[in-house]
Write a structure and sequence with these properties.
Blueprint lengths: L5 E6 L6 E7 L2 E6 L5 E3 L15 H6 L2
Antiparallel strand pairs: 1-2, 2-3, 3-4
């Protein structure tokens, strides 16, 4: 899945301005266009974790 740069629907926590998603040498970041507040993002998307089902007999043994 390709992540694209662009405007975000969320607002800046400091001033309520428009946030823009971009990346540079150090990784992905979001920047407010009004006040310039910048915060780097550790992960953009995490793959859903596969949850294994418990065996039925173990499930009832624990209750």
């Amino acid at each position: 899945m390709r992540v694209r740069e662009g405007f975000l629907k969320t607002r800046c926590l400091k001033c309520g301005g428009n946030l823009y998603l971009d990346r540079d040498l150090y990784g992905w970041y979001r920047e407010c266009l009004q006040c310039g507040r910048t915060s780097y993002i550790e992960t953009l998307l995490q793959a859903p974790q596969k949850v294994e089902q418990e065996p039925a007999d173990l499930k009832y043994a624990l209750t």
